[in-house]
Sequence to fold (195 residues):
Amino acid sequence: MSDPNSTDVTRLLSAINDGHTKAADELLPLVYDSLRRMAGAHMSHEPAGHTLQPTALVHEAYLRLIGAGDMKWHGRGHFFAAAATAMRRILVERARRKMATKHGGGRKAVPIDEGSLAAEPDAVDMLALDEALDRLAARDERWTQIVMLRYFAGLSIEDTAAAMGLSMTTVKDEWNFARAWLHRELRGEQHGSRA
Fold:
């Protein structure tokens, strides 16, 4: 996610923190491509036939991030982690609406293979993943933040380390631990038990 506009993004986030409303309008064109890639990655995990498009996901997430006006940004990493979280929440809300009884609820288990959560899983049940991430956050907030930056924001190990102020080795190790933990949790959910 390193790009030539990173200084401009940081400057605009600081301006937004200072209450300059025009900065939000200037920020979107600079971060749009990165947000679009993130949204595309999120949408690739959605089941066939979904109706939400990546562009709509980007715009809804951006409005949540900037529209509230009460968020203080601590740099690019914080912004992109918040964007990943916003996209996750939007998709979870959509999944919950779809699963509601009036919409023919009755969640079914989606099998995941050994490669799931490696970087680009084919299909993971968004609600199960959301619940597992909540359990992970209760266990280790930093692991959760690494997952959000790597899996949802699409940051590299290097960019995640820079955003969190950690060594690349620490991020790599904790990413592997968090992935394994989530994989175990998701497999346990499929079999009706949790470790």
Observations:
- Residues 112-116, 118-123 have pLDDT under 50 and may be disordered.
